[in-house]
Design goal:
By secondary structure, the protein is mostly helical. The chain has one domain. The protein is 64% helix and 0% strand.
């Protein structure tokens, strides 16, 4: 006898205002995705974010000690970030030229 296959997909139904559907459809089109794919991915991503925010981080006592040591130590400059923060932002550069 053949075994009954377990269902791997489950329907999800939502009632949304026309304005919400229009926004979703526009964004899905910009991404080249169907409405279903776009909404599924957005919902799953939002659910993962919530779970990651509430999931405790577990580590060994030695790992925690190393973590705290790294946090307690002096900050070290990252040359790429130092250089980045020294640059004039494009909108500031354009603005300063128009004032001259």
């Amino acid at each position: 006898m053949s075994r009954a296959m377990k269902r791997k997909e489950y329907p999800l139904s939502m009632r949304l205002p026309e304005a919400d559907i229009a926004i979703i459809d526009r964004a899905a089109t910009l991404r080249g995705r169907s409405r279903t794919d776009f909404v599924r991915d957005a919902a799953v991503r939002a659910a993962e974010d919530v779970l990651m925010e509430t999931m405790p981080i577990r580590m060994s006592p030695a790992g925690f000690k190393a973590f705290m040591t790294a946090l307690s130590g002096p900050a070290a400059p990252i040359p790429e970030l130092v250089e980045l923060f020294r640059r004039v932002a494009p909108w500031e550069a354009a603005d300063s030229k128009s004032r001259s």
